Amino acid sequence: MAKPTHHILVCASFRASGEARGACNRKGSVDFLPYLENEILDRGLDALVSSTGCLKECSKGPIMIIYPENHWYRQVESEETIDQILDALEEGEVAAEHLLT
Fold this sequence. Notes:
The protein is built from three helices and four strands, in the order βααβββα. By secondary structure, it is an alpha+beta fold. Strand 3 and strand 4 form a beta hairpin.
């Protein structure tokens, strides 16, 4: 497998025990993974999506990070937000209104 251009990390609030708990999980981060995966495929983006353990930004979650750009996005709670972030990624831009600051 070739290394993807982008790696998208989504906080799923997994704990060391493997249990999914925490703010991002309660706010539906895992629920939007299929939509995110489908959008990546539909857009032909070279990206890999991974769910993660807690990223320690609970009050601003769900959190999504895009590497290698190192863009941390906050409150990714809707398909509209995901679309705006992916639109920006396609254009080589940043979805500034969603950045974690």
